[in-house]
Amino acid sequence: MAATRGRPRAFDREAALAAATRLFWRHGYEATSIGALTEAMNIRPPSLYAAFGDKKTLFEEVVTTYRRTRGAFMLRALDEEPDVRTGIARMLREAAVEYTDPTVPPGCLVISGAANCSPANADVAARLRELRDANLAVFEQRLGHAVAVGELPDDTDVSTLASYLAAVIQGMSQRARDGATTRELTALAETAMLAVPGRVDEPADD
């Protein structure tokens, strides 16, 4: 009597998406082929298209999920801390840890995911630039509010400071991809804080 064939293993969409995320994160959008994706996700091309759509649609889902999970630390730090200086310091220190986490590719997916895209994929690069600009707008908004409530001096150049913080974050991501350690990036974060105006609390009296 022939052996009974087992039921096919259920498709794990979450695991497949995680595998795609690691590939896009490490290699970028353009350098990640459909063949590499299907191999890493352990599915055939028709299954990939059925579950996720085309490559660009898959990448958009990867980016959306990343921003909601691993990439959410920046805006969460600004939202949760009671004052803007503390929020910025936490954001930069957490970036040093997140961008060098050995369990995932280095750096930030949104910063490096569409580097060196050809004109054929200019829309992908534009989409990530749009997301980075959205973060920059949040930085400006938070800094502007800090000036309005007296957390930062009235003469603070909000636009320039927001751009500076965005540049620091992007630089930390690239340094991580170049092999910088958590300790190195933490030192960079502490140095960057010197450019953020505001009162430095005096040590408590004995």
TrEMBL record:
It comes from the Bacteria. One of its GO terms (molecular function) is DNA binding. It holds the Pfam family TetR_N. InterPro entries: Homeodomain-like_sf, HTH_TetR, Tet_transcr_reg_TetR-rel_C_sf, TetR_C. PANTHER family: HTH-TYPE TRANSCRIPTIONAL REGULATOR YJDC (PTHR47506:SF1), TRANSCRIPTIONAL REGULATORY PROTEIN (PTHR47506). This is HTH-type transcriptional repressor ComR.
